[in-house]
Amino acid sequence: MEILFATSNKHKFEEAKSFFGNARPALKLTHQPFDYSEIRSDNVEEIAKDAAAAAYKQFKKPLFVEDSGLFINSLNDFPGTFSAWTMKKIGNIGILRLMSDSTDRTAKFVSCIAYHDGKKISTFIGTCEGSIAIKISGVDGFGYDPIFIPQGEQKTFAQSIQLKNKLSHRYKVLLKFCEYLHD
Question: pTM of the predicted model, to two decimals?
Fold first, then answer.
């Protein structure tokens, strides 16, 4: 089976491609760069649904999109759905500065896949609980990986890509999506 992933984030595509290649039975993932004006919402599912509708209108074939965010407890869930914008503006260093006096370092990544089959949009949610590190650590991955430590672990995702590949929000949502496709 072949499936289209509409995204302009090459890192997301590479993670998904690796996952799909290991799925049984294997699913072939194709990539279509997709830029659109994202709606403003605090809800990743709402954003993903809107993006899936826009992508389907443009490409006219079954596809999925993925939206995610980092929600930090002590920052009232900031950056949340504004994670990409925040990364561009202040990066990991800025997040660590905002949290410099915080004792509550709990956070979670939330990911939503919205799949448009031509008739309806189905959504899937994946979450990874964890905490924000005191300092940037590691070189693998992208985005907030150097500051995010999954719950029960000692290393950031950027310090152990294997850890990320089995615990991340994106892995969890791709697993749910694959199960749906195989039903």
Answer: 0.92
Which pLDDT belongs to residue 25? 65
First to last CA, the chain: 13
> Domains in the chain, please, with CATH?
2-182 (3.90.950.10)
Residues belonging to the active site? 67
Confidence of residue 26 (pLDDT cuts 50, 70, 90): low
Q: Is 123 left (phi over 0), alpha (psi -120 to 50) or beta?
A: beta
Distance CA 157, CA 165 (A): 9
| Residue that has been written with the tokens 């991340």 in this structure | 168
Distances from the Cα of 109 to the Cα of 19, 28, 37, 72, 137, angstroms? 18, 26, 22, 9, 18
pLDDT at site 183: 75
pLDDT at position 99, please?
98
Q: Residue 31 and residue 45: Cα distance in Å, rounded?
A: 21
